[in-house]
Amino acid sequence: MTIALTKVAYTTAATARGGRSGHVTSADGVIDLDTAQPGTSDTAKANPETLFAAGYAACFQGALANRARTRGVDTSDSTVTAEVSFGPSEDDGFGIAVELTVQLPGVDRETARELLELAHEFCPYSKATRGNIAVTLELA
Questions:
Q1: Which one-letter DSSP state was computed for residue 42?
Q2: Is-above-0.85 flag for pTM?
Q3: Are strands 134-139 and 94-103 parallel, antiparallel or unpaired?
Q4: Residue 48 near residue 20, CB atoms below 8 Å
């Protein structure tokens, strides 16, 4: 099922040249960096999975804070780590999987687990990947 936007709140763009071993820039110039396949460079460089992990972690953190606010729960000390894995998939191609690990200091485990599930339903990255890739939620 496709869910259409009812209003555009923000639009951005990024351009890649050279694929995994190239260069990416964002339209606003905030991102302007070389990319490399993991393990192919003497110096650490970003790759699509690095960028996806950063985006998903930040988006999920925002969704978590939003859902927590509706319940009067303070998540200002929380962290979200997105671990993105890349490899061969069952369809003879390649795919990714994500494990989101959330730390919610000062929040009891039952409430924390509820907030994780609510954030996963609310987060735009989670919505975009739902049914397409494996996403695992972990509470640290």
A1: S
A2: yes
A3: parallel
A4: yes
In the predicted structure, residue 41 carries a pLDDT above the cut 80: no
Same domain flag for 35 and 92? no
**CA quadruple 60, 65, 66, 67: dihedral, nearest 10:** 90
Give the domain extent around 99. 47-139
Q: What is the mean pLDDT of residues 33-49?
A: 86
For 23, the 3-state DSSP assignment is strand
Bridge partners (DSSP) of residue 137 are: 100
Domain count for the chain: 2
Residues 28-40 have pLDDT tens digits of 999 999 999 887 7
Phi–psi pair at 134, nearest 5 degrees: -80, 125
- Given a contact cutoff of 8 angstroms between Cβ atoms, the answer to whether 74 and 64 are in contact is no
Looking at the fold, whether 106 and 62 belong to one and the same domain comes out as yes
